[in-house]
Amino acid sequence: MSATTISAAPSRTAKPKLHLLIIWAALLTAPAWMGYIGGYDALASRILVFGLAAMGLNLLLGFTGVMSFGHAAYFGLGAYGAGFVLRYWVHSTPLAILCGILLGTVAGVVFGALMMRRTGMYFAMLTIAFGQICYYVAYSWNSVTGGYDGLRGFQRAPLDLGFTVLNIRDNGVLFYYFVLAIFAVCTALMGLLLRSPLGRTMIAIRENPRRARFLGINVERHILISFAISTFFTSVAGALYALLNNFADPTSLYYVISGNIVIMAVMGGMLNFWGPLLGAAIFVTLQDYISSMTVNWMSWIGIIFVAIVLFFPSGVLGFLRRRSASK
Amino acid sequence: MLTLVLFNLTNGLILGLFYVLMALGVSLILNLSNVINFAHGNFLALGGYVAYALSPYMGYWLALLVAPLVVGLVGLIVERTMIRRVYARPHVYSLLLTFGLSFILQDFCRMVWGVNGLPLSIPNVLNQPVSNTLFFLTGYRFFLVGVVVVAVAALFAFLGFTRVGTRIRAGTLDLDTVSALGINIGLLRSFNFALGIFLAALAGVLAGGQIGLNPNMGDDLVLPSFIAIIIGGAGSLVGTLVGGIVIGIASAVTAIWWSAGSEVVIYILMVVVLVLRPRGLMGEEGMMT
């Protein structure tokens, strides 16, 4: 990545934030217009969930410049963590989310520490391998995880705010807004992170790891921190995913999901803060559409991957930016 | 009990040999091109299917050799038209590219040959049990071991004693210098990629005779072949060889007592190696990039 593409992080001195207005207006009104373009509430929620996962991954991929092809593990562990609480312990949505985050992030820290022993392609390979460990455990530990069929028989609980009860269990639109609220908090945290010295350090590592090292930055430690933070956000998304579907299955841990999350980030534009959300919106919608239209959905998804890599490597936003720059 | 242990050991050895053929190909490509080939398992399946399509016309023996060559050619075309375009880009692109290719190849096999498994018939000569007491020692298994041993020996001889082989080994260590010495590394990488695909397709033909053909027959071999490389150590083909056999046997032996653990155990082995010896069993220090 060249030095001309520095900092796509939101900065205080940026121009009027028209794009922010558009993004939030679109997200806030989504349930109202989703139906007209052939969508539905659950699709909108799914876009937000995967958007959050991809933005979480992108802290590592786009902003630290480190490749992970195993984020499905933390996504899936988030989902299972939430599922365990609802299935075996208490009927509480907030607690479910917290435990999902805990499970995913702890795994992220432990695995991350082990993976830091390798770099480059071997690191990427390790991220896949550690992801598959979680997959096989979920797959074979039948009595606890439900094995191949997944963890079923739980439902998200209505949200008790003290003065009123939000029935997010039965009301899909209300659940969408619940997901959106958590999404908003998470993106705010990510934005703050990227403006902080830690975020700047991450970007410095992406731009030139060797120079960062010469400046006295402990590169390995910062990559580990970035890895842990990104697994945190991805596991939030995973916990929400379990609540959305009311089940958690091993597929959510499979490396194919990792690939999907990565392509979302790349597709939207991984140098842009909001790129992964756009990528998630496009990919999730396409996937939904293609899988209902043809049995050869695998070819189409494959072609999307190949086309993005060969023709739009900087994603939709990167492509638009270059076009407007060349005019 | 002894029979059971022997049975599992044999299975493990066979499984390990498939891992070895796969992992050597992945490793060759990774070492020289710095690309992780997700689609390797799909080239394996393609190899089996091409042999299935060819054997009625040319017989099993010729198909065993021709099918890998045909698939190797497909690999060469894929490398020349697509893979080579991402060499200079960040890692994420080559991963996504081969990931997408694996979807396309798998769907292609499904479209052409169907979802259901197909048998790849092998000559009767190979199907005889060799021993009356140890039923699992069929001639085919001895044949399989023989072919893999010959293929691996040929590969190492090729890398060790020919000019192109030496260039591939040199390129693994320092590609820039090899290029500066006037060697066409684009061509070298293409050939090397095709060589790796050839090995995968050969494994596919052999596996087809053992377990039959289906569109995702190679999927379960891809991840273990990565583990074999990680355990064996970066940049070392001998390490990959050892790693493949070790995890094959470990997973089959574990299956004696704990059948669900046969996959988990290879990951446990990987973690143990990572903790105790981060560079892998035979990896060179500093060869981890």
Please give a structural write-up.
The complex is a heterodimer of chains A (327) and B (289). Chain A is built from 14 helices and 2 strands; from the N terminus they run ααααααββαααααααα. Chain A has 327 residues and is mainly alpha-helical. Chain A has a domain at 40-255. The two termini of chain A are 23 Å apart. Chain B has 10 helices and no strands. Chain B starts with a helix and ends in a 13-residue tail after the last helix. The longest helix of chain B has 42 residues, at 40-81. Chain B has a single domain, classed as Orthogonal Bundle (ABC transporter involved in vitamin B12 uptake, BtuC), CATH 1.10.3470. Chain B has helices at residues 2-33, 40-81, 91-113, 139-161, 163-173, 175-180, 185-211, 219-232, 237-257, 261-276. Classes of the chains: A mainly alpha (327), B mainly alpha (289). The interface between A and B is large, with 43 and 44 residues.
Descriptive labels:
heterodimer, A: 327 residues, mainly alpha, two-stranded antiparallel ribbon, 14 helices, 2 strands, 1% strand, disordered N terminus, B: 289 residues, ABC transporter involved in vitamin B12 uptake, BtuC
